Structures are given as structure tokens and as C-alpha cells.
Amino acid sequence: MADEIKEALTRLAEPVVPRPDPYHRLLVRVRRRRQRRMTVAGVVGLAAVAAALPVFGAAGPPAATDAAASPPPAIGTYQPASRIDKPMVRRLLDSPTRGNLAGDEALIAEIRRQYRAARAQLLVDPSLDEVKVLLAHDVPGARTVVVAFLNDSYASLRHGFGAAGASVPELLRKTGSPDERQSLEPYVFLGRHSPVAGHYVADLAVGLAPAGCHVETSADGRIQPDGTVTRSWQAVSGDGFVVRGAGQVAERWRFTCDGVVRYAGPEGGGRGTVIRVEKTPSASTTGALGSVDATFAATAVRALQDSLESNGLTGPAPQVIWAGRLPDWVPGAPTAVLVRSCSTAGGCAALLVADVDPPRRPEPAYQKSAAGQPDLVAVQVPGETRGVLVVGPESAVRAELLDAKGRTIASGRLEAGAGAIRADPRQVSKIKILDRDGRILRTEATPSLSTGFDQLGEPTVWAW
């Protein structure tokens, strides 16, 4: 009895999430805000290692099916299963086992047997009597499996992971159960962070779609002067899956099924799992305008570097180009830092980080990205009172904001080339900057302002 109690307590302790560092919490909050339109499910951590459960899509009311369908599983002790109500979901569940361990028949059979026996432990209703291994794969430092429990009309998915070569019992010990019903979607995106030297470092990213879908990756995106992105794609799999492990380059992924791009975006489904920075980088402030707080600047530099990596964009280490306090008409007049990284193609990625809630530092609650040029960046400032921060060459003393018809809708002074101007960013199509003699120094389009776009040149595609 004592041994059974110890074993039960051990299992209960597994899903405890170690408290992440403040920057990790910031990343999670910012990405949630930027991706509210994505149908992505939550992440569950496990003791000593932060591990994400599969992303099945946003929960919603189950679609109606005919009366001959299997009855829903029991509700109570077990987590309710989800109805199989989409053809693409059925294709995913009918797909053969994928991954570099799929050919190990003895291992796959043992995974099925042990996971079936562990249904109660995993809060899976026993009426889901069929067990299918959808993915079994080893990458450097990790083994991962995706397992489906199903009957004719309902299914639940679980994900397990461990060290490379982990036994099935080890995988089971690192298999969590979601807090609530997860609706079934034709994809599984997941990732894992592990604690390294006081930080959480991504060491696993998984994408799984129905067999036959084509997967491509790209890590060479270059921002152009007009804010668009050019990149090349490398085919990874014609079998609908991709797995990346520790130390591999962060990428943008593209899944194409039946000739339609179903997903294009950060690896791992954009769950913030591609960050491979193990420590806060030093911030270069050479040429920066304004007084720079080194710690705050380093946070902004790291945030932009993470954003570049997660979007598969290339560029040098970000530099601080401006720091200071925003005007009084910006709520709270917060301290802010603007950082920038310019690609070899001549376009730049910029990020404004504002400390809008100082008591919560180092977790600045506002971040806004924009595309720009090496000598002119414009980005939206925080708060309901709309405005634009303009940073140009030091010789610039005035900026004019123009609409799509070329009319000046607002203007303002620049101190040492920088200043905030009150205007609705959505109405701004171009910016003109002038020197003290009234000569025009630059006139540039501002697509990231007029569209309200905040993904550094490329939208994330969800078309499942």
C-alpha cells in the first residue's frame, strides 16, 4: 500500500509547472496577444522540464452527426473526448505511423500496449478502445510520440516525450493530460522548453498533419526596403510531419495539403517554442539616440532577436537606435527602447518596447514591431491615444505624416532626429523628414503602420 501511495503521489507531482523566469512569461503573454486569431490550444508543463501538449485547435461546439454514430464517452472521472467531425481530422487519424521510429514494429506495438493500459492514468475514457501511434520520432536530445485513443466517432490525443531513446514507461511519465476538452483539428503542433542555466530554452518543436501533406521550411527570410520578405523554401517531408530538436536553426514552416497552403508561420505552430537564446545578449548602443538603460535595452534586443528567429528571418544582432521617455499624451509617459536589425536586402525589422507598467519590470507589457529602412523607422506608440514614434538621422528636425493621397495629416518636431507625433497610424502611408533648412531628407512608405500589421512582413496562414 505504501508503495502504491508513493507511486500515485509521484504521478500527481509530474504535471507541476516550474515557475518560468520573467522574460519567459513576457514572451508567452506577447505571443498570445499577437496570435489571438490563431486556433491554438494551451501548453502544459511537467516537473523539471517545461513541455507542451499538442495543439489541437480552439474548443468549440461539436458538429452534429447522424444518429448511428457511437455514443459519447462517459463524463466524470475521464476527460470528455472530442467528436471526429471533419474529413481532414479523419485523414489524420487514418494516417500510418510517421517518424524515424515508425519502422520499429516492436516499439510501436509496445507503445500501443502500454498507452492503452494507462488510459485511466491519462484521463482517457476506456470506451476509446483503439490506440494508434501517429508519430514516433527521435531527434538530438529528445524522443517524442503522439498517440490517438479513438472509437468510431470520438477521439482524444496525447503527447509524450523523453530523452532520445527513452523507454515507453519514461514516455508515459512525461505524458500530460489537457485541463479541458480539446477539439480535434487536422494538425498537431507542439513544443517544449527545458531549463538551462536559469532560462527556458526550446529543444523540441513538432508539426504533424495528415499523411500526404508536403512540409517545407525556411530560415533565410530577408526583409526588403518595402517591408515585404523574400525567402527560399526547402522540402522536408512529403509525409506530413516535421520534428526539430535542440540546437537546430529556428525556421518558418509551410504545410501544403491537396495543393492548398494550410499553415505558414513560425515553427511549432507559433507556440513560442523556437527561442534558442540561453542568456540575455549584450545590447549594442553605438549611435543610439537618448539615454539607454542597459538592462532594459538588453531585454528589447533579446525580444527582437527572438522574433527574428521565430519568423525564420536573417539579420545581424539588433542594435538600440533610440531610448527615452514617451510624451505625456502617451498614457503613463513610459520609458521605451527602439531596437533594429537590418537585412542584407536593405530592409529592417524594428521593435519598440515600452515599460508601461514599471512595477512589473523586467516585464514590459507593450511591444510593437515594424519594418523600416536603415535611416528611418516609424512605429506605433502604446495607448488608446494613437501616435507614431519617428526615428531618422540626427540632422532631421521635422517629420510630416502623409495619407494614401499624399496629404499631410500630422507633423511634429524631431529632437536629434527622433520624436513622437499624434496621429492615427492606420491613416499614415508615408513619412517625410526634413532638416532645419526645410530640405527633404527622406520620404518613405510605411506599410506596417497603414495596415496595422505586426508580423514583420508576413502573415501567419491558418487554412485548415
> What shape does the CA trace take?
elongated
Distance between the termini: 49 Å
Runs in which pLDDT lies below 50 for 5 or more consecutive residues are 4-70, 272-279
Which structural class do the helices and strands define?
alpha+beta
Q: Major β-sheet, in short?
A: 5 strands, antiparallel
The count of strands amounts to: 26
- The average pLDDT score comes to 80
What level of helicity do the residues show?
10-25%
Oligomerization category of the chains in this entry: single chain
Count of helical segments?
7
Strand order of the largest sheet: 11-8-13-14-26
Q: Roughly what fraction of the amino acids lie in strands? A: 25-35%
Rg, rounded, reads 25 Å
Supply the number of structural domains.
2
Keywords: Membrane, Transmembrane, Transmembrane helix
Transmembrane segments: 39-59
Descriptive account of the structure:
The chain is α+β, with helices and mostly antiparallel strands and 464 residues long. The protein has 2 domains: 12-63 and 70-269, no CATH class; 294-453, no CATH class. It is built from 7 helices and 26 strands. The chain has helices at 2-13, 22-34, 87-94, 105-117, 168-173, 294-310, 447-450; strands at residues 50-51, 82-83, 130-139, 142-150, 154-162, 188-196, 199-208, 214-218, 222-223, 229-230, 234-237, 241-245, 252-257, 260-266, 319-325, 335-342, 348-354, 366-372, 377-380, 387-391, 398-402, 408-413, 418-422, 430-434, 440-445, 461-462. The strands form 7 sheets. It has a 5-stranded antiparallel β-sheet, with no helix packed on it. It has a 4-stranded antiparallel β-sheet with strand order 1-6-7-12, with no helix packed on it. The chain has a 4-stranded antiparallel β-sheet with strand order 2-5-4-3. Strand 21 and strand 22 form a beta hairpin. It is elongated. The two termini are 49 Å apart. The chain crosses the membrane at residues 39-59. Keywords: Membrane, Transmembrane, Transmembrane helix.
